[in-house]
Design goal:
single chain; 620 residues; mainly alpha; six-stranded mixed sheet; 32 helices; 64% helix; 5% strand; disordered N terminus; binds zinc ion
Amino acid sequence: MTTLLLPPANQIPLETKARTLSLLERCSDIKEVEQIHAQMIKKGLVLDTIPISRLLSLCVMSNSGSLSYARAIFDRIRRPNIFMWNTMIKGYSNSKHPEESIVIYQMLHNSTPINAYTFPFLLKACTNLSALEETRQIHGHIIKYGLGDEVYAANSLLHVYAKYGRISSARRLFDRIQSRDTVSWNSMINGYAKSGEIKIAHELFSQMPARNVISWTSIISGYVGCGLFKEALSLFHEMQVAEIKPDNVALVSALSACAQLGALDQGRWVRSYIDKNRIQVDQILGCSLVDMYSKCGDVEEALSVFTKITKRGVSVWTAMITGFAIHGRGREALEFFKDMEKEGIKPNHITFTGVLTACSYAGLVEEGKCLFKNMERVYDISPSIEHYGCMVDLLGRAGLLKEAEEMIKRMPMKPNAAVWGALLGACRIHGNYELGRKVGKILIEMDADHGGRYVHLASVFSAAGKWDEAVMVRRLMKDRGVSKLPGCSLIDLNGSVHEFLAGDQSHPQAEEIYRAWDQIVERLRQEGYIAETESLLLDLEEEEKESAIHQHSEKLAIAFGLISSKPGSTIRVVKNLRVCKDCHSVTKLISKVYSREIVVRDRTRFHLFKDGCCSCRDYW
Ligand code: ZN
Ligand code: ZN
């Protein structure tokens, strides 16, 4: 590229320049760009600022890897103007080498005056590089150049600080910006929400002068991230009232809230919204829908969504397989796993967690062992601690306690509380006192603040008739000031979620519910029901011993469901802990006596009660 023999730029006829510009305008690939560039060199147009700037941004913007071509052009420009510098910074900020943006900026810094447009892409490069120190230095430059008040530059800085959790730096900057716009507010809300300060995020959200869809989405996903699902859903409804159309991120957040709450009616509402507005169901949205339906207990509907998704990636398959798993439909999970492979989709580590869980809950021991063996050999996925946990659970549930223990010993990593917990659960189911005692002691030392661990160990002791030891564990728990997570059940009726705690009196219809429960018990007694109060006193279950067995949260929720829904309709309850023995037998009986299907999701899986039986086959 020699420029020695070219005519000076001011002698080039105007129409030649205009023609070249319009050719550049219509350029569609790098080949054409190269041709025009060659002509530009011939005609001396490379010395003219406008066509060369245009050429440069075209190379940078086209996504056919022509950034290096742009760089070659740029390096030959004797005195690039600020527009050209900014173009190069922008080009690299989104490339595989964002650090080049900073290199270019350093060169620029020493030669040409900077403007406000230099910083947004430079800061974007810093975001992509997680370069906080550089960000701070650039912040200094922005102030030095007197651009601190430029909302464009300030917003970019805010975004980086908020994204990397430097919330106090972000806030200081935010408070100083004179002309804050929606983007500034959104960055702050996002930053607070992501760092768990949801209250402050909400305060800002209510104060901001104009909210757009990103503001709503940020606050809704913030609530979901903090586990405040009811609040997230009510904000989602407020968003409808405000006539803001939710984007896919908001829809995914709302669906995830429904899934956690088991709020099927509201989940259905989101689905119909998607259908009505002809919103394209992509991988992420499809995955959320499948997940929502299966976690709300409607695995058939999950399946129908699944079959309608045209291009199914591994995440959608995994969601469906996991759905079958938590419903105890292990065979189908395995079948889908095979179908997925037939379609040429490679399983990932989450798929394996799903399919191993499926084997565990359905008692498919051989299948599970075989999959686990093949993980590394065939699929090139080294088992993580979750997968070992699944295997310990699988072997333990099946009564292969020795093998489960061996598995823990063979693990290449240090077993965590979840892995030991799986073994302890198995000891309890199979009444292995010796091993249970050993494992339980390891657990309460390892997870000393987790009330459930003490209760488990105590129940292993009491099941073996070792009352003294059971009492000792209880006392230890009390002395250490460990409290247990209170039992809580949710029921979704006519589009609103009702929440019950054990012994709860706070529901507006509490009196009616307790009266209904007494009648239910009366009727069950006629059918031969005897409350397993003995097991409650001795086999200290997960719910507090003090709260009477008849006030367990799922019983209140089911009673409420029975009096508040149409006869014959399905009752769906979500419980935060494991279902106790008595609640399990009572629910079986209710399903028969009242001819109702009752779906209960407990901490880990689903129970479908129908005609006096449960889908878990009393194996949970
Ligand atoms: Zn119970
Ligand atoms: Zn069950």
